[in-house]
Amino acid sequence: MKKTLKNQAIIVSMGDIIREEAKKRGESTKETAKNLRKEHGEYIVSELTIKKIKEFQKEGNENSIVVDGIRSHHEVEMFKENFDDFIILSIFANPTLRFKRLQDRMREDDSKDYKEFAKRDQMELDFGIGNVIALSDKLIINESDLESYSEEINEFLNEINL
Asked: Across 76-122, where does the E strand assignment appear?
């Protein structure tokens, strides 16, 4: 769950938090994402993520923290309430390209067919991911090659002094 970016930042994945909970429950990640919110409210995934971040900070870790996987404006609100210097970066690619990349990635919980993928996209839209993108401080279009994407990310990281 904890990864580092150029030894300057810790990456915390909200999806990893859901995957861990899904494993405990014996559910799919899709079911767990919905059930957690139904059982504990719209803020639960961000609350669990913030708890994890604060644990890192208690350990004396002063690295910057990158949160991957924000899906709703509720989560944005929680992060803004808890972290003064919170910045939202959204990365966009069209659905066809994202589906191809998911197939290439081959993670266990990735959609195997396009209809399933489209349902997942709709679920994330229902969570409010469109609002997150609209609230972004920066949007990067990731529809080119890896080198171009890396250049844009590094440019952004330089802009925010990370």
From this structure: 89-92
